[in-house]
Design a protein that fits this description.
Elements (H helix, E strand, L loop, with lengths): L1 H32 L3 H7 L11 H6 L3 H34 L6 H13 L4 H11 L7 H4 L6 H11 L4 H9 L4 H12 L1 H17 L2 H6 L8 H17 L1 H6 L9 H33 L5
Helix pairs in contact: 1-15, 4-8, 4-11, 5-8, 8-11, 11-15, 13-15
């Protein structure tokens, strides 16, 4: 009994230290974002700012319309993509999880195979721009993330544990497949749906590469791509002192270091607020839906 108690305390201590190690970097990022630029240059990064300043956030919010528009694009893509992607993932996983489906093994292998190999970025770009004609549309940001093999396999692992007898009894009562799926299977799979939905929403929220490839219009630029462009602009100005001097820009007054961290806070903040509401489903969904065979 004493050995078991000591082992539990060691495990709890390990996860406590692991949690602290994960939280501390984000706290440091927040502290840097509200530290005066001169203090950062003189003292480096500190958890307790020597002098506070909100200049970084003031520069970011100088154009609130652009920022709000980027937030709107990102929120729209995340909501629409998560809703459609979650439905498609659940439908695909349900089909290959049914033992009475003749081709469930071959279909599962086909989905698993795409986890190992892909068509490459060139074929992906040609497909999106030449065949689907999705360049400079929000569907170019939504469509690529609708169905992820990893999410399908996790969802399949969860749905495989639902007894087939439930489906058979519903059929004997006259229910069709569509009604069984929406009124019986989906309510039973709530933890897995919450988990996969959160994973899909994180993917859409953090996505910026596809928007860099396909988006040209300024009013369709998502938040992450806007932040990447701001970061590149800051790096360009920092590396070209003569150019900034010709524009009468004083680099010492420009909060380049704290502004990077302020943008990281603005990008990650909304998802950090949402995550605690899904945490209990997240742990349960990943545990029950772990891969098996």
């Amino acid at each position: 009994m004493r050995t078991t108690g000591l082992a539990e305390r060691l495990i709890q201590l390990f996860f406590l230290l692991l949690s602290i190690a994960m939280v501390l970097p984000f706290i440091l990022v927040v502290c840097i974002s509200i530290t005066e630029e001169q203090s950062l240059l003189q003292n480096g990064y500190r958890f307790i700012p020597e002098s506070l300043s909100l200049d970084a956030y003031r520069y970011v919010f100088e154009s609130p319309v652009v920022l709000m528009r980027a937030y709107g694009v990102t929120i729209t893509v995340t909501l629409v993509g998560t809703a459609i992607g979650l439905l498609m993932t659940a439908m695909t996983a349900y089909v290959i999880s049914r033992r009475d489906f003749r081709y469930n093994r071959s279909a599962t292998f086909y989905i698993f195979f795409t986890m190992l190999f892909s068509g490459g970025i060139v074929s992906f770009y040609i497909l999106m721009t030449q065949f689907l004609q999705l360049r400079d549309t929000l569907w170019a940001l939504i469509l690529p993330g609708l169905l992820t093999p990893w999410n399908v396999m996790v969802m399949k692992g969860f749905l495989s544990k639902i007894p087939l007898e439930i489906v058979e009894s519903a059929k004997m009562d006259g229910a069709r497949e569509v009604r069984i799926f929406f009124t019986m299977i989906l309510p039973l799979a709530t933890p897995a749906l919450a988990t996969i939905g959160l994973l899909i929403s994180f993917t859409y929220w953090n996505e910026w590469f596809n928007s860099m490839l396909f988006i040209d219009s300024d009013n369709k630029v998502p938040l992450q791509l806007m932040l990447v462009r701001i970061m590149n602009t800051i790096e360009f100005l920092s590396a070209n002192a003569e150019f900034t001097a010709s524009l009468d820009i004083n680099q010492s007054e420009f909060p380049s270091l704290s502004m990077r961290m302020a943008m990281a806070v603005l990008a990650a903040g909304p998802m950090l607020c949402i995550f605690p509401f899904f945490q209990r489903y997240f742990v349960r969904g990943l545990t029950i839906g772990s891969l098996k065979g």
